[in-house]
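Researcher: Next entry in the queue.
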Amino acid sequence: MNPKSNITLIGMPGAGKSTIGIILAKYLTYGFIDTDILIQINHQKSLQQIMDETGYLDLRRIEENEILKLNIKNHVIATGGSAVYSEKAMAHLQRISVIVFLNVAIHVLEKRIHNYATRGIAKSVDQSFAQLFDERQTLYKKYARIIVDCNTMDQEETAEIISKKYHEVRIG
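Model: Structure for this entry, 172 residues:
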């Protein structure tokens, strides 16, 4: 049996990592950790405040450090969308979890995200959402053990499918 006892959800902002993560944790009777919330608690600032004060690259560095500190079992971990920029963080997550990419089409994400300018998305000032989407897709696919198409399912259905695929991966 695979010793990885955690599930890590990766994907773009608006993919549903936090909401699906909570539902999935309930299904599996696992704990739930959202690395964006860890950052906000540990730094006493919103992600946007961190970026406004020190820049998006600093936010990515902070995110990497928070992920590298994770030493947990039986948890669902929802990462920030930019976690995939850190090879160290992703290698750590691969060691301790099965990584699941919540794949959502850009037009769906654009309908879901209404606070793009203030959401704390770690990107350069001149980078559009479409450019960010294109840049990250390759990285998400590179690290994911499981890819779930989330365009036509609701959050409950998505959590059920992840749970089933997770058990298949752990047993297989």
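Model: The CA atoms of residues 101 and 134 lie 15 Å apart.
Researcher: Noted, moving on.
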